[in-house]
């Protein structure tokens, strides 16, 4: 069974005020049966300090607010450096740090999983083992979901380690939907697409969203900016378009 496509939002925007993430809260309320996968990124990873440290108080407040919406999964960002052995200790330590968020009791800031940025695409046995070890640590720590972001079509063996693999992350000018359509349907269901620097009109974005949802992708993002720390000018329209395309409204 193919599940309806979810919205994938890399949300690297620092929640400096209670209203900073309001466009997201508004969309979660407006589209309660659309599913949102949100990637938070306190400090190119979980930050060196734990959630009880004052330095993270803005994040604790924002994530506990986000946690009140039933239609989200929250992912912690980690940098993977293509599975490099030299980064493996830091990667495992980042995952263990995020796991402490799930044990934090003053408020619910529990995370559903880990977003592995700069994941590998070409298969290599040692690199595969590093990623398998990291994904297993995350799962056994209660961070049960994994998204890998190679930003390109990855070797199919990596799909066994992750719920979803970002098979395209790039500018709209470089996006080729036919390359995604060429993937087997079973692969597309576990694939995500992130298109940034979208320059078209709102109506053309709607057609793009309909095409991507129609391909049966696991999740998608289309944003007018080239930065994950700003809202797309078409964010609200995008969430409406995905919701219409998946047929929930
Ligand atoms: C997280 O990983 C980064 C490298 O990407 C490293 O610099 C940092 O110290 C790690 N943080 C923790 C808490 O493990
Ligand atoms: C925190 O929120 C999540 C998602 O709603 C829920 O599954 C979990 O049980 C909550 N944790 C606690 C300790 O209430
Ligand atoms: C692929 O995605 C489906 C949901 O569409 C999920 O149930 C399944 O666990 C995923 N497969 C893997 C290997 O993660």
UniProtKB/TrEMBL annotation:
It comes from the Eukaryota. It holds the Pfam family Spherulin4. This is Spherulin-4. It comes from Lachnellula arida.
